Amino acid sequence: MKILNYTATALLIFLIFYLLFIGKDILLPLVIAITLWYLINLLARAFSRIALRGFRFPMPVCLTASFLTFIFLVLALINFLSSTVGGVLEVAPIYQENLTTRLERISFVDVSEFEGQSLPQLLTGWIDIPTYAAAIASSLTSILASGALILIYIGFLFLEQGYFTNKIASLVADPDKEQDANRIINRIRDDIQKYISIKVFTSSLTGTLSYVGLLIADVDFAGVWGLLIFLLNFIPTVGSIIATIFPALIALAQSDGYTLFLLVLFGIGALQVCIGNILEPRLMGSSFNLSPIIILLNLALWGYIWGIIGMFLCVPFLIIVTIILSHFPQTRPIAVILSSDGRLRVPMNETMGVFSTNPSSSALSSRDQEKSEQGG
């Protein structure tokens, strides 16, 4: 029986990921809308904590201010990209040609042959700046093209969010389990909020300092690379590596010597190490306790399923899954595998059984009694 259950579970997981893959054109706008909706609520809660002489703005005002802030940021981003991306795509072939020439001048690798190609030829084949630039521009364009649909989804999410608590209560059915469900949701909300807040801070710090450094070093399109570094830092491990190498290659392509290349490479690399490996772990603490190997596998999986958007969302997805799995005795072993050191924040005595949508008679009678008392 256990083998049958494991087989059925494996098939179900495979089917879910298959549906996520083939339905990405439909699901991605919804996922982006849910992400933006969550961020708008997160910013609104931050606004609601601001007190002016003891006065706090009501939540509807905070939500409106948060929504307008996001609209302003999106419009500013569109305006910035529309004025710079064209220039980047225009000079990308020139950068590629210069980079190829520079690599071919490296004498100690000219003798290295692999399948009839020298190492510089292989490197320039892998480092295709026009293709990468076009891919990034295409991803941003596809997101913006779905803007109307995303806004519609966000609008419906705001209309529905007032009923989420009632839906959970009705879904769980058993009043004894409702509190447990709310505890899971609150823990997910708190962890995602902490993760996003810290990542926004550290990525903004890295992107801003990188922009200032690139601007001082007179690297072309410093603003674009600063924005790219900010965004790539949301992609675990791989993002920071790309964010370090890519501007350095641009510096190599636009200069005659190697001084600018080394300056950019080690400068941004030092920033990534100091902020990403020292400051960020101190801010994160042991809150998430996720295995680095699992994060990389998760990154590859979601990158394959949903591309760049999946890479951005892979860690929040993993946090949510780990929290949910750690609350049920049957799935705690999986949560242990996903963790870094095998220790879970949820004690065993706080785990719960499987939720039932068919409440017991005692649960129904207690709920009816509560309703009658409230009515009386």
Helix-strand sequence: HHEEHEEHHHHHHHHHHH
Tally of DSSP helical segments: 14
Structural class: mainly alpha
Fraction of residues in β-strands: under 5%
Strand order of the largest sheet: 1-2
Mean pLDDT: 80
Features:
376 residues; mainly alpha; two-stranded antiparallel sheet; two-stranded antiparallel ribbon; 14 helices
Structural summary, described in words:
- 78% of the residues lie in helices and 2% in strands.
- It has a domain at 24-173.
- It is globular and about 70 Å long.
- The strands form two sheets. The chain has a two-stranded antiparallel ribbon.
- A hairpin with a 2-residue loop joins strand 1 and strand 2.
- By secondary structure, the protein is an all-alpha fold.
- The protein starts with a helix and ends with a helix.
- It has 14 helices and four strands.
- The model is unreliable at 108-112 and 359-368 (pLDDT under 50).
Which helices and strands occur, and which strands form pairs?
Layout: H1 2-22, H2 24-48, E1 51-52, E2 55-56, H3 59-104, E3 113-114, E4 117-118, H4 119-126, H5 129-145, H6 147-160, H7 164-172, H8 175-216, H9 222-232, H10 238-254, H11 259-284, H12 292-326, H13 332-338, H14 361-375
Antiparallel strand pairs: 1-2, 3-4
Q: In brief, what are we looking at here?
A:
The chain has 376 residues and is mostly helical.
